[in-house]
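ugh ok fine here u go
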Amino acid sequence: MKIATFLTTIAVAAGVLLTGGARDAGAQPAGAGQGFSAAEFDYGTRFELPDGQAPEIWNPAKRKLVAGGPMIGGTVRAVDPRTYCAMAGAGYDFVWVEMQHEAISWEQVARMWRTCPGPAAPGARVAYADEREIQHATDMGALVVVVPTVDSVEEAQAAVDWTYFPPLGRRSFGGGQGPREMWTGVPGGYRQTWNDNVVLILMIETLEGVENAREIARIPGVTALFAASGDLGNFSGFSEGDPEYEALITEVASAAVEAGIHACAPLRWADRPSFTCFQAATETANILRGAQAEIGQAEQRFRGTGGGAPAERAGTAALLAELTAQCGAITYEADCYAAVESAAAGVRDAAEAERMQVARRIRELMGVNPNQAARIGEIAAGAGLAIGTP
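structure:
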């Protein structure tokens, strides 16, 4: 009797739980018998700022864009915190760490950002639009996220999803040194104001990306499209200045402007209309350029005292420095070619000794860059400087 009574009690209790569960499910917004619907759920107010309080833009890079630009970023490929700190303090609005083409770990990036969180905003060019890549960047402290080779609307949406917190995106709030240490005291709170402060730049580098650029630019959360000068040449088979190449660049810039977002490009395009954000040189290029300029100034002062040969024009030293910076270790061919054209044109009316000095440097650079040598020679000749055989 006791066993039968016990089993009956369990059966009755189970029935109560089941019917109670059914009543609770029926109380969900989706309606009776439909279960829970995420699509019909109204997002709560937990992370909203108090009424009347607008989110403050505390990200210096985003602040520069809001003001109309130009937002200028440097590029770091090294892992030494001292090198990163020098770049972060050099005057850039942000500095992106090269995580697409370098063998750098996120642990190394975290150490650099932790050592020098400013004054330039920390950023990263991740390898692709992936939760792990972008979450590592943002959790470690990145305020600027650059995603390369975005071909489709789906890839662009994935980049938005993993960059932004809900309800706009799907970023998980898992902590990390960014929200817990570097930006814990920002006005309004990190979680509450993140979506208003992050900068998301999508790089359009392929023909498929150009084809879909207008749709990509209209996705909420995309801050800017980057017209990738190097890879648009790589994927199109045309060079900067060719009508086919320039049409691709114009399409990317137009897509951004028409969508009301920003268009980014290499810094040498700062005089092109439509562009408001730019990528500047790497730390290696800056070291080469700075060293050449410093040496040139010292040589001028030395010759000014009567020693050595007659002093060269001040501009020649700068031209040589730029040549060495852009072509000594080529990052982007177009930057090297632009430096060659500028140097050759800059000494068109100079003394023969200065013309020979620039020609000699260009020949040296042709020797260390055999794949680009023919094009370098053509550009120099077109600008009025005969180079001869390297």
